[in-house]
Amino acid sequence: MSSLGELRKMALNRKGSGIKAATPDNKAAYIFLAPWLVGLVVFTIGPMLASLYLSFTDYNLLKPPVWSGFDNIVRMMNDERLWNSLRVTFTYVVFSVPLQLAFALLVALILDRGMRGLGIYRSIFYLPSLLGGSVAIAILWRQVFGNDGIINGFLSWFGIEGPGWISHPDYALGTIIILHIWTFGSPMVIFLAGLRQIPDMYYEAASMDGAGKIRRFFSITFPLLTPIIFFNLVLQIIFAFQSFTQAYIVSGGTGGPSDSTMFFTLYLYKQAFTQLDMGYASAMAWFLLLIIAGFTAFNFWLSRFWVFYDD
Amino acid sequence: MSSAAATEQATLPPLPAPPKSRIHYRRRARIASVFKHAGLILLSIVMIYPLIWLVVSSLKPNDQIFRDLSIFTTDLTLDNYVQGWTTQGLPFSHFLLNSAILSVGAILGNLISCSLAAYAFARLRFRGRNLFFAIMLGTIMLPFHVVLVPQFVIFRELGWLETFLPLIVPKFLATDAFFVFLMVQFIRGLPKEIFEAARIDGAGHPRIFAQVTLPLMVPALATTAIFTFIWTWGDFFGPLIYLRTRENFPVSIALKGFVDAQSSSDYGAMFAMSVVSLIPLFLAFLIGQKYLVKGIATTGIK
């Protein structure tokens, strides 16, 4: 079961699991949890509070933070590059996530259970997702879509003069989106696992009632798969908002050309570690958190209308 | 197509099916299957082609790499590997070793700390369990940028910049909550009787954890180890922030050096070292496939 399903269940029956019968193991539990608790306080909750504070300060690491009230927020409102980076990131999320998931689902549906060569196909499709986050693949992508890259080489067979994919602001982001779609293997594996859990007898019954393939997809497969689609969607959106390495490498660390691949996280990194504007970067980080939380909440709200839970 | 398929399905087996139509149906199924495999093979080629092109290009003389789509060539050389190994100021093995140290540290940290926490969440009853568990799940979804600056300040104050500690120590404190969750799910799936039997035999929790739970959760531990390895090996952001001197660079940052030094015609060397950097990942993929697929299917980690 997914972590989201877990959260949802906990939200639904808060009282449910408060078992009082057996003797509690408080002491043992806290000892086992000690490393996690320390990590939580020192590396998560503490830093969260600190960065919330820093959001309202001017801080460059060298001198102690100076309280500046809402200066950072006002500055964000007027920061053209920041809004541009948000637009770039939104574009990336809106295109790469649904396309990747749709592709993953389509391929998962084609890979029937018990099909010959299933394991081999699955491995081949999955491999890019494992390697996809690495710098080597981002470098490869730079060359594949470079002026002399294999994409333009391929197009030239048909007499098409390919554009400078990486060097043209209109196309650079598209190449990173394609890189993301190329890594459709991991959601595909999740879809495959989900498809396997749908009982055969549903399909048999539907066949007997005369339902065709399309009908069976919309009446059985899709509804029963919606929790998994939802799970993939939420997580992929959260991760996509945080993408960094690919944009950094493909653009050579600049976010260019003309800021067309300046992801929000890349801009944040630059503010923090090249401008040493740690206060502003903290404010940006909280802004990102709010955006992601907003998207996730909206997703959960929307899920009522299309996600079908069996339980 | 849809309605045609539907009607065919509907009318297909009239009870005493005439043999002719059955053969016809089987042939149609076979043709469909051929098309399906053809499509999948084509897709496989598209998926894998860039990787093969990378490997082949790394073996080509520099002047032949571009505008050459073909992966079939006879003119192969190891020059790029020789060149690339030394061109970053230090032998590439140095960066490989750095990445290996980071990976081993992170793997040990995650295995130890996450399994401890997971045992508590899965098997023990304690005050605040639900709250802590919800927080743990929440941290999986928290963008790390929110803790980025303060963490940097902490490590700077500790004098840990330019060391591997900022990249390893948090792992020993179970900050990769994904794996805690994965292990919780796994332990919950184990038969309860085993734990009850151990209790009746008088074993305490440390013993049940070490001698009963850990041996049973080897698949979950393997998944954790492999994913930790793949993430740490590929991690770019962490080293970019904490490691700025060449001696400390892991493979990911060393590779970036090739991109920065674009002026030269060192594409061959860059490709060669890219291939070298991918080999450990590929091996991890081969060895851990079974666990990887299971791990990803149950929790959705990459």
Automatic annotation (TrEMBL), chain A:
SUPFAM superfamilies: MalF N-terminal region-like (SSF160964), MetI-like (SSF161098). The chain crosses the membrane at residues 30-56, 90-111, 123-141, 171-195, 216-241, 281-302. It is a multi-pass membrane protein. One of its GO terms (biological process) is transmembrane transport. It is found in: Cell membrane. InterPro entries: ABC_transporter_permease (IPR051393), MetI-like (IPR000515), MetI-like_sf (IPR035906). PANTHER family: ABC TRANSPORTER PERMEASE PROTEIN, ABC TRANSPORTER PERMEASE PROTEIN YESP-RELATED. Belongs to the binding-protein-dependent transport system permease family. This is Sugar ABC transporter permease.
TrEMBL record, chain B:
PROSITE patterns: ABC_TM1. Residues 1-21 are annotated as: Disordered. Residues 96-288 form the ABC transmembrane type-1 domain. One of its GO terms (biological process) is transmembrane transport. It comes from the Bacteria. Belongs to the binding-protein-dependent transport system permease family. PANTHER family: ABC TRANSPORTER PERMEASE PROTEIN MG189-RELATED-RELATED, ABC TRANSPORTER PERMEASE PROTEIN YESQ-RELATED. This is Carbohydrate ABC transporter permease. It comes from Protaetiibacter intestinalis.
